[in-house]
Design the sequence.
């Protein structure tokens, strides 16, 4: 099983009629889609509108999703097309260089953020997040820190991390879980995912 | 702002006091974390996904951990993101119908099934539409229906051709009478009819094509 399979599990639940599973996919990919759109669209309100439209289009098209590509790759293409339609509806063309550049990247994972679309608020927020992440990472024991970095930044599997850290896979699993919990505790006030919100 | 992802060097920084998060480290939530990374066996995945949908605490953790991953990879992803977006999409989803799609199949399997359906549909059309029409055409000829008029007209034309002694006429109507056949073939034709019955296209049986000489 891979991360792609975990997404596919949620997709199957949506295809069987469970909308809550789609909400989890939205929760997982909303930031990446927003970042992708922010490379094409300047207005933050438009980014939200297009992101929402893209997710709803994806939901409606989900019965046709056959799992031949990763869910995110499929969603990513829908978001790109929705952004192009947004420009077409306004009688404008999508910024060609940016759109082509984005489409050249199969998954969008390595997309470079265009700093000139950032607002003062988002810059401030990014700085706060950066400080919180660094604070949380610094407070972690080295084993936990290494495990989460190898997983989230280097994309290593648990088996590969176990080899790199010379420990059992079960230990890797435990370390990654504990690191996530610790960083989430530090970030939670900045995430906007409090208990009073639906998500 | 330039992206400043954490690097391996971050792991080498000096450790600071660490307190385990409250209520942490149960075996179940560890499995959820492993599932998020795609590191759980397929046999456990379905049950875990079902619980994830039911358990608000798990949902909360799942959402937080997704955000942690995004924050580690790029702080701007969190910083530039509107926390309202999820709620907006959730409200929009409320007005969408639940999906009830058939289980997604690989393209190849889908093509085979489509081909099978096409063949079955063609066979059904042949059996239930074409054959009854052909059969009724044959029966109608004997029952004095409109098809009978066509047959009679054909007989008349054939008779005229025969009367004119046209040796090049290729088609003769069997219903026109015994004079249209070589009498020596009658036993053979009778025997053949007994064996074959009416056949799939009985309406065509009234026509006989003569190809050789000496059959006039």
Sequence:
């Amino acid at each position: 099983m891979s991360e792609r399979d975990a997404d596919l599990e949620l997709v199957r639940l949506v295809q069987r009629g469970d909308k809550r599973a789609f909400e989890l996919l939205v929760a997982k990919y909303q930031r990446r889609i927003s970042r992708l759109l922010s490379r094409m669209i300047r207005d933050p309100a438009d980014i939200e509108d297009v992101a929402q439209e893209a997710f709803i289009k994806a939901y409606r098209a989900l019965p046709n999703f056959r799992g031949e590509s990763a869910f995110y790759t499929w969603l990513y293409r829908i978001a790109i097309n929705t952004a192009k339609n947004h420009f077409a509806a306004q009688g404008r063309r999508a910024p060609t260089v940016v759109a082509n550049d984005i489409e050249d990247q199969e998954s969008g994972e390595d997309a470079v953020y265009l700093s000139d679309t950032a607002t003062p608020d988002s810059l401030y927020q990014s700085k706060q997040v950066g400080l919180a992440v660094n604070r949380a990472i610094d407070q972690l024991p080295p084993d936990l820190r290494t495990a989460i970095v190898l997983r989230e930044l280097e994309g290593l599997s648990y088996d590969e991390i176990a080899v790199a850290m010379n420990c059992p896979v079960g230990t890797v699993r435990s370390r990654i879980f504990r690191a996530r919990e610790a960083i989430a505790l530090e970030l939670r006030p900045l995430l906007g995912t409090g208990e009073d919100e639906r998500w | 702002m330039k992206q400043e992802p954490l690097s391996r060097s971050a792991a080498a920084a000096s450790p600071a006091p660490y307190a385990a998060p409250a209520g942490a480290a149960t075996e179940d939530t560890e499995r959820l974390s492993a599932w998020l990374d795609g590191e759980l066996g397929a046999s456990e995945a379905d049950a875990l996904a079902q619980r994830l949908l039911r358990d608000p605490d798990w949902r909360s953790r799942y959402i937080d951990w997704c955000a942690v991953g995004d924050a580690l990879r790029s702080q701007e992803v969190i910083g530039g993101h509107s926390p309202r977006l999820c709620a907006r999409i959730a409200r929009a989803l409320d007005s969408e119908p639940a999906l009830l799609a058939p289980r997604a199949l690989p393209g190849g399997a889908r093509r085979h099934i489509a081909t099978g359906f096409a063949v079955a549909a063609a066979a059904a059309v042949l059996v239930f539409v074409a054959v009854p029409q052909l059969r009724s055409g044959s029966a109608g000829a004997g029952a004095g229906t409109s098809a009978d008029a066509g047959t009679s007209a054909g007989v008349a034309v054939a008779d005229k051709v025969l009367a004119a002694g046209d040796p090049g006429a290729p088609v003769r109507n069997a219903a026109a009478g015994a004079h249209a056949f070589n009498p020596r073939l009658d036993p053979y034709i009778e025997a053949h009819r007994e064996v074959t019955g009416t056949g799939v296209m009985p309406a065509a049986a009234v026509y006989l094509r003569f190809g050789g000489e000496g059959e006039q």
Q: What stands out?
A: The radius of gyration of chain A is 19 Å. Residues 50 and 86 of chain A are 7 Å apart (CA to CA). Chain A touches chain B through 103 residues (CB under 8 Å).
